[in-house]
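agent: user wants the structure for DUF5063 domain-containing protein from Hymenobacter algoricola. delegating to structure tool.
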Amino acid sequence: MTELIPTINEIVKYGLQPNLTVTDKEKLLEKDLVKIYNLYFDIKYKFDETAFPDFDKTEYSDIRQNVTSHFKDFGFYKTILDINDIDNTKDSGIGDAIDDLTDIILDLLEIKWRIENNSLADGLWFFELTFYSHTQQHILDLLNFMKQKNG
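agent: tool returned. relaying tokens verbatim.
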């Protein structure tokens, strides 16, 4: 797990820093998203029973704006609501790549904050919980969007 915080830092910079100059942003982002996905499978912790304070997401109100400025060609995309319903060709939905990356960044910031302010176990517990229930789908959707967009 020594790669977790450095990988988080590589992804969250797109939401925290307004004027980044990065070559091959999308390729680097894709690589780091895959790395976070892979790190999920190595989570090991002993549950920490301590009652810790909650993460304050309100201080990160500019993340969406920063993501939008860094990835100008990210936008809406079509999704299938139930991929297993082969016979239903009419029900689709709309996804948003900017929202996907914004939510991923917020989840990763909370994981990092919990590790640095609460405990390693609390951060890894939250990583496991939020990844499976939220972050994983955003990563898959964003990677699929990027693949479809770039061919």
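agent: one observation worth passing along. The chain has a mean pLDDT of 95.
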